[in-house]
Amino acid sequence: MPDVPHPNRSIVFGLERSGSGDWAVSTGRASRASLTLIIAWTSDELEKIAAADELQLASARPDGTLRKPVTIWVVRLGDDLYVRSVNGRTSHWFRCTEDRREGHVRAGGVDKDVRFVEADDDVSDEIETAYRTKYQHYGASYVDPLFTPDARAATLELVPRSAAS
Q1: What is the rounded CA–CA span in Å between residue 90 and residue 150?
Q2: Measured between alpha carbons, how far is 108 from 44 in angstroms, rounded to an integer?
């Protein structure tokens, strides 16, 4: 007999990123009817943020209010945006992103609520190349600290979120 959902449950379809970075449809059960919307960067947002030299990042406190923003560098890799803490995971701003894993970014005329997601190790070399390419004009003394093991371990993907999430 086919697997029929309980009348008070629904089948939820979503997208999951595989280890190779490809998106795949996944299914699962939910205790109530729900629909999860995948919010993505628009091409315009990606272009504007990628063209900006700096990004303002404000992480959310446990109560949801935003902290004072910090200015950091940002890189684009395909349809994704990444930030990295030159001082590693012990950096004050990085530790603050771990409270709620949510915040707000502003760059290139784009203002967006985001989630902070740990970057996959398999894109770390590509992120490094993106940083070198974008910021090489500052010189090695400013750029190379982004490639220490501590800094690489403090790389976050910025994932847009809806205002209601």
Answers
A1: 9
A2: 10
| Domain spans in the chain, listed from the N-terminal domain onward | 1-36, 43-160
Residue 112, judged by CB atoms within 10 A of its CB (0-12, 13-18, 19+), counts as buried
- The reported pTM is 0.76
Q: 3-class DSSP state for residue 162? A: coil
The answer to whether residues 155 and 82 touch, using CB atoms and an 8 Å cutoff, is yes
Residue type, 83: V
Beta strand pairing call for 110-118 and 70-72: unpaired
Residues 165, 161: Cα–Cα separation, whole Å: 6
- The CATH fold assigned to 43-160 is Pnp Oxidase; Chain A (2.30.110)
Block means of pLDDT (10 residues each) for the chain, 165 residues, are: 41 47 47 55 97 97 96 97 96 94 97 96 95 96 95 96 66
Measure the CA angle with vertex 85, ends 84 and 87; round to 5°. Answer: 150
Instruction: Give the number of other Cβ atoms within 10 Å of residue 55's Cβ.
Output: 21
| Per-residue tokens: 49 | 């943020």
